[in-house]
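>> received
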Amino acid sequence: MAAAPIATTVGTRVPRVEGPARVTGAARFTADVALHNALWAKVVRSPHPHARIRSIDTSAAMQVPGVRAIVTARDLPDPKKRLGRARLRDLPILCDDVVRFIGDRVAVVAAETAEAAEEAALLVRVDYEELPAVFDPVVAMEPRAPVLHPDLPTYEGYNPDIHADRVNVAGYQRIEHGDVQTGFARADLVVEHTYRTQLAHHGYLEPNAFALRIEEDGRVRVWASNKNPFNLKSELARALDLPSQQVIVETPSIGADFGGKAGQPDPEALYYLARMTGRPVREVLTTAEDLTATSPRHPAHIWLRTGVTRDGTVVAHQGRIIFDSGAYAAYKPSVRSMPGEGVESLAGCYDIPNLHLEGFSVYTNHVPCGYMRAPGQPQAYFALETHMTLIARELGVDPYAFRARNVIRLPVQRLDVVAPTVLQEAASAIDWAAPKPPRVGRGIAMAARRTGAGEGSSDVTVNPDGTITVISALPDNGPGGLTTVVQVVAEFFGVPINRLRLVHGNTDALPVDAASAGSRVTNVATRCVTSAGQQVIDQLTPLAATMLGSAGATWERPGWQAPDGRFVSLEEVAAEMITPGDPRAHAQVTLNVPGEGGPGYCAQAAEVEVDTETGRVTLRKIATAQDVGTVLNALSHQGQVDGSVVQGIGYALMEEITVDEGRPTVTHLGEYKLPVVADVPELVTVNIPSSGVGPFNVRSVGEIVIVPVAAAIAGAVIDAVGAPIFQLPVTAESVLAAIERVREDQR
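>> returned
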């Protein structure tokens, strides 16, 4: 027969496969997990930013009706055991001797009801000896600062090259090339400024939740609002001294995370409650706990010094970024205990011959910070790109032209050169050179980010009815990764997407799966499923050859073709040759997908109007230009771009957790100012095809887009009012203060 038409999905607007369950309420989140005979857990938290635990009295709490157990560090087999996601393990399951931030975990209660657990938690009496606290990371690095982790040399992951001879430093990184002193000697102008960014939360709607049950065979089954189930499995096994195969992590739906649901020590504590009581245990954090005691975005102090020549060429650049780590470094986004690419981002997308950058992650008595979208980059790029705007103003040149002169033009492991292109397209989309009314300003900024890599696995089966079953353990945390998996398998086999069946598996279903994080999902998932698909095709080819009576049958999706042109479809081979459970119709593949190619680029331009009497900033337009490789799903892609821009607007103009002597003052989302529809201006997106990675030429989308937003908006405000901006968020009060500083300087 003739070849069947090929169904294609690449570049189309494929609806979310998980969408119907979410909009109908059928999707099950961790808080929906109803375990028979389960107890409710509540954590007892420290009211002090730094204190020694003298004693803990649980007697009054145990008298509350319904209370079944209370676990403290003294009930743990090894109270000194420390947790950590990357390399440095410094976080206790429950504090054994010292608390280091307001909200630190001291004990955990299990009761028949959530109300009883909460009442008992309030009755746990802890005798504290308050210790000196430090809240400023710059001060924390001074020789006389209180040492928050005197036992740091005993922690797993201690690195003398990073930690020795540095007070309260959890992470350190240095990048340099050329000779900055020689470069500065060549400079005609040297510009030096200091910038600050705020403590910011992810703003997800579903609070962290956990449930744990010890099965009759001793296996530990966990449900968690956690986008990295395989890491949770291995960390839980390590912390509890269990074989890895003894832990099963289920993968319920996640009500968004943006990096915030990658690791909390709650499951470890719940395990000991479950073991003590012989019953399952569940916990749902309050929004106040999520906002004050989980893992927000790091605040940062950034110092930059840059030398330029009269023609606008950057010849030397120094930078130092100091991240406020908070009380622990256990969940930092890199093995250096640093927030991701925060240090190298201080050089941005520019060709700078002489460079010296360094970064510190510093312990303070604040809430421990962790992953948040594009870790470390929004802070660094706000400072760098605002700095570039201010340098251009001092030179008396156009900020766009200044960037265009210095932007990277040589390919960095890339087949094409797109950094200048995205910059140009963003400027064009905002009508950069067009006249503008008074108090209206335009700003521009750009960023680079690599496409992520990592380990992943996939399971593909062709069924006798010609449908294809795909098993994925990829967490469903919002970006649409499961839809991408289904879409790519359909595209690979050339069949309609309605012929695909998705099974969302737990950590027993597959050997490993990369977390939905680190700009890696599309890269890792597409390679894994296509590799498994190819293995199935190779295994079925002899069966197709038998049906065609030709040894030379070759795969021509959606089937096989003989040299004489005869064709048999995948569906026909399945119906004729495959029986249920046929191993030839199944493949499971595990790959360690490497990082390939250079970074992707994104540039954004913003237009604002500023009321100079009140300081209010009104966004008029934001244009985003990005090199995208190949867009697989136009609907998901645009959603990621728009969502990241809106998050960037919040970071730029309003979002902040203010802290008073270590105590967060924002305790619910009504106080935490997230953008709403009225805050979103006209959004313009320019997609620039480019070389990507993998069989579908893909490139990361969501994380990079948030990175330049704050700097583009800050640049527009600077242009509108003629006053420098050095700090986020850019509030009406800070704008008025900047205007007043300029007026004072002019007097």
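>> The radius of gyration is 27 Å.
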